[in-house]
Amino acid sequence: MSPRIRGLLSFRAWLKARPQAADALLAVGLLAVGLPQLFLEKLPATPEFERFRDPDVWAALLVAAVTLALTWRRRAPLTVLLVICCGEMALALAEYPPGLPDVAAFLVAVYSVAAYRGLAQSALGGLIAFGYFVTFLLMLPVSSSPLTMITDAALVAGVWVLGRNLRLRRAYFAELEDRAARLERARGTDARAARIEERSRIARELHDVVAHHVSVMTVQAGAARRIIDRDPGSAREAMSTIEEVGRTALSEMRRIVGVLRTDRDAERAGQELAPQPGLGDLGELLDHVRETGLSVQLWIEGEARPPSPGVDVAAFRLIQEALTNTLKHAGPQARAWVRLYYGDGDLTVEIEDDGRGTATFMGDDGAKTGHGLVGMYERVALYGGELKIGPRVGGGFGVRARFPLEA
């Protein structure tokens, strides 16, 4: 880009940032072009034009005042229009001939009042300009034909309509830009909400996996420590179970965190992400729990049907978390029961134990405590289900959730 073009673009940007300076340059330009013409141009030698006075210093001052008023045409367009009308009326009453600067200033003022003010003020300015223009034509000593008057009046009306249309166009584009900005902000808000929800979901999954498997490993490690001297074989078996459960926990954690990987990371890993666990994996979960010494029984009633994928994962995690809490709080002699009821359109999941963990589950004020219970409520609510948690009649603790089969 040449330095000249670059300078012109910089000057244009400077004028755009300072609209009043641009209007002042417009007024000075009209005055510089039109004022010499006012003194140098000779009027036709006809009886009608002989009634005009020759321009003098007072005419030049009036023309300059009328033209330079355009400097404030955007800040106060209606006031500028009134000043120009009064100045041109003074020129007409003094019988000075109309010139290019004052006529052009009048048309620019009509355009400005329509382009930079609302409908009420622009309509008032248009009526004032039209009424003044007709009066000005009638006051001229030069007779005008009806066609000329109609043409001149149409010019004034056209300039007003042009300014009004440009104002509406600017408002339309401003609304489009504002709407685009609002949509961009809304998209950013939705993206942040989605990220927060995804973090919460991953946190729930990690809590369920870590809490369950670490609880199983803790119980097995405690058993191995107690019997390692008198029964080394059983201790080795318990340690093997700890190793297996630890590997399972690592595998599930890799799968959960794997959803954060990009496609390139997945290709680099050379394997696809494994599916989430569901009720089909319930037997394996109960086997892990039984290996800790907790007696768990499973009942399935009704016609078993596969629920939606989300409900499948949520029901499995609910059972996993409830059994984990039983392992941690119910005591060494506790027993647990898991029941699945398949209804016409819903699935009811019950997990109960006869242990002594009620006080640990419940706070002093009876409120549920712990991230695990909060995660249970969030999972069930996410799929439009119902959850009840509390002590059983006769001792122990119970968790009962109802899920719609179709989330």
UniProtKB/TrEMBL annotation:
Entry's Gene Ontology molecular function annotations: ATP binding; phosphorelay sensor kinase activity; protein dimerization activity
UniProt signal peptide: none
Pfam families: DUF7134, HATPase_c, HisKA_3
Membrane-spanning intervals of the chain: 21-40, 55-71, 78-94, 100-116, 123-140, 146-163
Cellular component aspect of the GO annotation: membrane
InterPro entries (UniProt xref): DUF7134 (IPR055558), HATPase_C_sf (IPR036890), HATPase_dom (IPR003594), Sensor_HK_TwoCompSys (IPR050482), Sig_transdc_His_kin_sub3_dim/P (IPR011712)
EC numbers: 2.7.13.3
Top-level taxon of the source organism: Bacteria
Protein name (database record): histidine kinase
Catalysed reaction, written as an equation: ATP + protein L-histidine = ADP + protein N-phospho-L-histidine
Record lineage: Bacteria, Bacillati, Actinomycetota, Actinomycetes, Streptosporangiales
Histidine kinase/HSP90-like ATPase domain boundaries: 310-407
The keyword Nucleotide-binding is assigned to this record: yes
Calcium in keyword set: no
Enzyme class: transferase
Keywords, sorted A to Z: ATP-binding, Kinase, Membrane, Nucleotide-binding, Phosphoprotein, Transferase, Transmembrane, Transmembrane helix, Two-component regulatory system
